[in-house]
Design a protein that fits this description.
The structure is a single chain. The protein has 127 residues and is α+β, with helices and mostly antiparallel strands. 34% of the residues lie in helices and 28% in strands. The strands form two sheets. A four-stranded antiparallel sheet has the order 1-8-3-6. A four-stranded antiparallel sheet has the order 2-7-4-5, with no helix packed on it. A hairpin with a 6-residue loop joins strand 4 and strand 5. Helix 1 runs antiparallel to helix 3.
């Protein structure tokens, strides 16, 4: 998402940082999740039943669908593949910042829906 600098500064003030060691589970598939996860360094793998694993590196994020209310439960398991520093932004904090930035809210909502559509299209028609 191409977010403005003012939005990014406000959001950065609310981010918490967590360090995950290789193999450590960050999020379990199916768990209730209300956070946006931004990879600052290292590598994180997103795994889901029946899907090709995808790797997330510095600057990439996951969880926008959860904090925006598009999804309630994590659709993927996130696992650190190397030592990873991950910034975590909770739903309440993000919504507080997005309340002042409607353009960025729409960008993140669009990204969440776009990712869901892509995942839907990749699902096999018959299990």
């Amino acid at each position: 998402a191409d977010c403005g600098q003012r939005f990014l500064r406000e959001a950065a003030l609310k981010l918490g940082a967590e360090v995950f060691e290789p193999g450590q589970v960050i999020v379990r598939e199916g768990m209730e999740c209300a956070s946006l996860f931004v990879v600052c360094s290292g590598s994180v793998e997103a795994l889901a039943e029946g899907k090709t694993p995808r790797s997330l590196g510095a600057g990439e994020y996951v969880g926008e669908a959860h904090v925006l209310g598009v999804e309630g439960r994590a659709q993927e398991r996130l696992v650190a593949r190397s030592r990873a520093v991950v910034r975590v932004l909770g739903k309440n904090a993000l919504n507080q910042v997005l309340g002042n930035h409607p353009f960025e809210r729409s960008l993140l909502q669009h990204a969440a829906v776009e990712r869901q559509l892509q995942e839907y299209q990749e699902r096999p028609m018959c299990p």
